[in-house]
């Protein structure tokens, strides 16, 4: 396992702290974002007012947004479709398939896109495989679905290696 494949480009406490102007300063024209525990809690079936406000802020500033989720279509659609957000479901992260599909949907090049997610093992790894920059955020809630719990166990092992090599991570409140 090459440890750099799991190292995010940025660490930000929450997706809702991302400023569209700062993203644009980094030549980002589109944001790919995970759903569960990134945009909304994994056990919340619906989108939230906070999600809507963030989406509007991104869109009003000219940034495209697409949700890239490993979850089922019904789950993703219920959470974001009412907000007019495009999405990729069953994205098969940590593989690059879903991110590459989103790139085609957005009609963007990898260097103009950033992937935001709460898991090293899926979101960050998939971003690396697709050649897209990445932002790791803290999970919105402390609990996880059973399948994510397995990834979190593996993720703790990767964090230990990253910390041993690079030191403690520094989480920021913005980019």
TrEMBL record:
Q: Which is a GO BP term held by this UniProt record? A: DNA repair
Do the record's keywords include Chloroplast? Answer: no
This protein's record includes keyword Hydrolase: yes
Which molecular function term from Gene Ontology is one that the record holds?
phosphoglycolate phosphatase activity
Q: By its UniProt entry, which CDD domains does this protein fall under?
A: HAD_BsYqeG-like
**One Pfam family per UniProt:** Hydrolase
Arranged from A to Z, the UniProt key words for this protein are:
Hydrolase
Check the record and name the PANTHER family matching this protein: PHOSPHOGLYCOLATE PHOSPHATASE
Return the protein name: HAD family hydrolase
In its UniProt entry, the species of origin is given as: Lactococcus lactis
Taxonomy of origin reads: Bacteria, Bacillati, Bacillota, Bacilli, Lactobacillales
